[in-house]
Amino acid sequence: MLHRHDTATRRRVVPSALAGVLACAGLVALGHAGRAQAAEITLIAPGGIRAAIGQMIPAFEQKTGHKVRATFGSGGGTKDRVIKGELFDVPVVQPPLEPVVGSGHVVKESETPLAVVWVGVAVKAGAPKPDISTAAAVKAMLLAAKAIAYPNAASGAAAGVSFNETLEKLGITEQMKPKIRIAQGGRGAMELLAKGEVDIGLTFISEIITEPGVEVVGPLPKDISTPTGLVGFLHTQTKEPAAAKALIAYLSGPEAAAVYRERGMVPGR
Fold first, then answer.
1. Which CATH architecture has domain 119-219?
2. Which of 84, 86, 88, 257 is deepest in the core (most CB within 10 A)?
3. How far apart are CA 234 and CA 193, in angstroms?
């Protein structure tokens, strides 16, 4: 390192062109230092956790200085993108996890439970709330409904896949077919409900409470509906491992747990 008197002497003899090069080099060094401290992290996750993560991103960015660029999609679509090798620093996926881990694109040891979401029943705001306390009550409600809406399982919507399984367990899949309106995502199902085009809507509770004109009745009973877990991973090829780990830690920490509860979810830890 140059002493002050050495620096002053050299300033007098360094040609102006070389001085310009040194100045540019200094700016580049500062740029590298800034990137090392404040990284941009990419994240992909299913729509069921969109509202919660969207609420937490500004607080995480303010706390750490990092920036988060988030992408949301269906549960199945998100998982397929990770398995195919698309690079997201923090993939959030739903079980089964074996295909994701087996793809080699996530660090197995980084597996971190974030939250659990339940499929719930919704009615139009102000409408009477039906009894859904038992499987028998849910079956009676569905058979009495004029029309129901839920997300498209064929497009990978986890809530749709789960509710199709519920219909199978109740033994009323064929009976319900004429009443079903398949929607594009949970938001689409809630829009149909709010417009009065159906009288019962079903999707993740976390997607019901964010939409206007509808109200949550409650979650489907455990014996006919399996909750969906959401798990965070570190991508094997991330260029920002420290920042990505910090994001996973935040999304599974105590501040996040409070947000998940607020958003109708159960913390994974």
1. 3-Layer(aba) Sandwich (3.40)
2. 88
3. 38
**What CATH number belongs to 38-117+228-267?**
3.40.190.10
Q: Which of 3-17, 70-84, 237-251, 254-268 has the lowest mean pLDDT?
A: 3-17
> Is it true that 38-117+228-267 and 119-219 share their CATH fold?
yes
How far apart, in whole angstroms, are the C-alpha atoms of residue 82 and residue 74? 12
Domain boundaries, the chain: 38-117+228-267, 119-219
Task: Quote the pLDDT of residue 37.
Answer: 73
Backbone angles phi, psi at 157, to 5 degrees: -65, 120
Could you read off the pLDDT of 135-166 as tens digits, one per residue? 999 999 999 999 999 999 999 899 999 999 99
- Return the sign of the alpha-carbon dihedral for residues 99, 118, 206, 171: positive
| b (16+ CB within 10 A) / e for 146-169 | ebbbbbbbeebbbbbbbbebbbeb
Rounded to an integer, what is the distance from CA 207 to the centroid of its chain? 11
Using alpha carbons, select from 40, 64, 95, 83 the residue that is nearest to residue 249.
Answer: 64
The DSSP element (H or E) to which 123 belongs, if any, is: strand 119-124
The predicted model scores a pTM of: 0.79
How does strand 148-151 pair with strand 200-204? parallel
